[in-house]
Amino acid sequence: MKPDAYLTRDPEIRTAIELEREGAAYYDRTLDALRDDELDAPSILPGWSRRHVVSHVAFNAQALRRLVNWAATGIESRMYESTEARDAQIEDGARLPASELRALHRRSAAELDASWRDLADPAWHAQVRMTDGPLIPATSTIWLRTREVWLHAVDLDSGASYDDFPAGLVDHLLANVLSSWRGRREAENIPNFILSPTDRGIPRGVGAADDADAVVLHGSAVDLTRWATGRGFLGVLSESGEPVPVAPRWI
């Protein structure tokens, strides 16, 4: 959908939607390159086939659309009734015939995009809530979908790569992960990771940079983001020479 089709005139929202649309097209190309029988193969995510990834991405669009509709109407409609309901829905979707699963994805994505298209500027700042957690503005649904389509394209394990991600997306992802870790650091005893991208020049950390107990990791911004989002150790080195630890959960 062209940017002019969206009701909002807010340039930041329109730019955010453009990045999501770029990621959606990237995901679609990756999915379309897979034969139906190849959907049965494992994805990068433990315990999930490619079918599970496609099912999750499709139902995620429906869940985010519920939040957009909440913002538009003022009638509460959370993403999922519960984590258990979400998981059961993904399993059900993964068992659909390939043609129906693909159609579910296309339809769900189009309906979410249409809801964004028709959302007036004041409603973009309405407060909505995910299944649990704090209230968020409806604008956050764009980022929530953006990270889904870009990352899960990689998770299909069919040639998509973090190396294809726009630089701004990589930086946003890494900042998002670090912010999540900071918020949970004390409760979950998350180490003070200091991430030093060799191609950015400015280290970023969970805590203070002069912390003697900090775990300092080096690598390109892409490699550090791949590691921080739980998708491998490629290109990441520990300053201490110790093995690179598994990244804490992000979401």
Can you describe what's shown?
- By secondary structure, the protein is an alpha+beta fold.
- It has two domains: 3-160, Four Helix Bundle (Hemerythrin (Met), subunit A) (Up-down Bundle), CATH 1.20.120.450; 167-238, Nonspecific Lipid-transfer Protein, Chain A, CATH 3.30.1050.
- The chain contains seven helices and six strands.
- It has helices at 11-32, 50-73, 83-94, 98-117, 140-155, 167-188, 221-228; strands at 127-129, 135-137, 193-197, 204-205, 215-219, 237-238.
- The strands form two sheets. It has a four-stranded mixed β-sheet with strand order 4-3-5-6. It has a two-stranded antiparallel ribbon with strand order 1-2.
- Strand 3 (193-197) and strand 4 form a beta hairpin.
- Helix 1 (11-32) runs parallel beside helix 5 (140-155), helix 2 packs parallel to helix 4 and helix 6 packs across helix 7 (221-228).
- The protein starts with 10 loop residues before the first helix and ends in a 13-residue tail after the last strand.
- It holds the Pfam family MDMPI_N.
- Residues 22-156 form the Mycothiol-dependent maleylpyruvate isomerase metal-binding domain.
- GO terms for molecular function: isomerase activity; metal ion binding.
- Residues 164-233 form the MDMPI C-terminal domain.
- Keywords: Isomerase, Pyruvate.
